User: Fold this.
Amino acid sequence: MLQVQQIKAGYQGRDVLHNISFTLHSGECLAVIGPNGCGKTTLLKVIAQLLPYRGTVELQGVELKQLKPKAVAKEIAMLSQIPSIYFSYSVEETVMMGRYLHMANTFWAMPTPKDKAVVQRCLEAVGLWEVRDQEISHLSGGQLQRVFLARTLAQEPRIILLDEPTNHLDLKYQVEMLVYLQAWVQEGSRAIIGVWHDINLALRLSHTMLVLKEGHTQAYGAVDDILSGDLLNRTYDIDVAGFMQESLRYWQERK
Amino acid sequence: MANKLTLLVLLAVVAITLGVALGSVYLPLQDILSIVAHKLWGGNLPPHIRPTAVSILWTLRLPRTFLAFTAGAALSVSGVVMQSVLRNPLASSYTLGVSSGASLGACIVILYGMTRPLLGNLTLPLVGFLGGLATILLTMGMASRLDRQMENHTIILVGMVFSLFVNAMTTMLSALSGEQLQRLYYWQMGSFAMKDWSTVATLAAVLLLGGLIVLRYHRELDMMTFGEEQARSMGVDLQKVKWILLITGAALTGSTVAFCGVIGFVDLVAPHIVRRLFGASHRWVVPLSGIFGGAFMVICDLAARTLTSPHELPVGAVTAFLGAPFFAWIYFRRRTFS
Assistant:
C-alpha cells in the first residue's frame, strides 16, 4: 500500500532522519517508537507531505510529491498533537473542516447531507455528538483530542497517521480509542501509522513496529519477531523490562 | 444569530444616517431622502430645501460618509485576513509593513507633486497602493528566502523589519519637506474630507473585488487558524492560498491608506468584536467585519468632525484613541488567560 524508501529529512539543513525505509500493507497498524528527538514526528510529517525530504514515499506506486495537497489529504490524514486555539469554533464546525476536500470547490458551497452524516457518525464514534454546539475553547484537553480525532476520521482517508494520540485521554478513552481504531483499520483498504510513547498501547494496536534511535532504524519488523527486552534497553538506555516487572510486582502486592 | 445580524445591519444604517445628518448644518431625515430621490430619479424638491443643503449633502456629506464606511470595511476585511492567516490576534497590515509602504509611496507623490496627466487624481492612491504592494512582495520574498516553509513568525518578523525601515524613510522625507510638512502630517493621520464620488466608487470597487476574493477562501481561512500543518494536512494548498490572501489584504489596506491616509486600529477592533458576537466561522466573519468596521469608521469620522467643531480632528487619532485601550485589553486578557 505505502512504500517508504531511503528517507532523509530534517530542519534547517540538518538531517533528523537517515535512510528510513519500510512498507505498510492494507489492514496493518505500524507503531513507531523511540526516545524523544529520534525523529518519530518528523517521519509522520514526511509521509503527510508536510516536510521536504529526499527519498521516495509511494502510495500504490505513485510518488506523493507529485500529488496536490487535496489529493494527498484524501489518502492520508494526520492527527497531530493539539494545536493552540486562537479562534474558537463549535465542535461540529471543527469536525466539518475535515470534509473540506470532499466539498464542491464553489464560492459558497454548503455541506451536503452526506457531509453532515459523516460528521455525525464521527462525533458519535468519539462520544461528542451531544456537545456538538459547544465552543472548542471550552473543552478539556481529552475532549479536544477526540474532536481532532473525529476531524481526522471525517476526512475518510485510507491511511491515518497518529502522533501520540492518547496524550490527553484518560484510561477509559484510551481503551475506547484503541478499540475504535482496531475496528476502523479492518474496514476496507486502510492502515494506521502511530507514534507512541506508551509501549503497552503501541502493542495493543500494532502488528508491526519501527524502532528509531537518533534518526536511524534500530529495528523494523513484526512485533513478535523484533520486540525484546534487550532492544528496548538499547533504544531507551534504561532497563525497560526491569522497570515494568517492578511495576507489575507492585500491583500484585497491592492486590 | 438572526437577531444579532439584524442589529448589526441596523447599527450600520443608523451610523450612516447620523453621519449624513449631523454636522455644522443639521439635515433632517426627510430632507435627506428628498434630496437623494431628486438626485437619483429627478423630480421637484420641496420648496423649503435650499440649494446649499443639496450641495452640502450631495458633494460633502454623502461622499464623505460612504468613503468612511468603505474605508472602514476594507481595513476590517484586511484585518480579518492578516489575523487568520498569521494566526495572530494582534496581526494587521501594519505588522507586515503594508501601511508603511503605502504611506511612503503617497508621501513621495505629495512632496514632489508627481501628478501625471494620464492618471490625474488617481496618481496618489495608485502610487500608495503600489508602495504597499511592493512592501508585502518584498516581505514575502525575503521571508520565503529565509524560510522555505514560510512560517508565520518569519513573515511577521520580516514584515516588522521592513515596516521600521520604510517608516524611517518616510520620516526622513517628511523632515526635509519644508512647507509641505503640515499637509503631510494631516494626510498621515487620516481624513475623509474633500473627497468626491469618484474616490468612493474606486475604493468601493476595490472593496467589492477584494472582499469577494477573501470570501472565496473562507473555508481555507477557518482551517489556517489551526496552524499551517493542520491546514495542509486537511488539503489546503497553503503556499498558493496564503499569497492570494495576503496580496488581497495588502491591496485593500494599500488603497485605503493611499486615498484616506493612515488609519489604525479599526482592522484590529472590528474582527475581534464580530468573532465574539457571531463566532469564528469566516463565512460570517468576513462580511460582518466589513459592515461593523464601516459603521465604526463612520461614527469615528462623525466624532472627528463634530466634537471640536469648527476644528476637525484627524480620524486616525480618534480610531487610535478608541483602539489603543482595546488593543491593550486584548493583549493583557490573553496574557492573563495563558
Summary: Strands of chain A lie at 2-11, 14-24, 29-33, 54-59, 62-63, 76-79, 159-163, 191-195, 208-213, 216-222. The first strand of chain A starts at residue 2 and ends at 11.
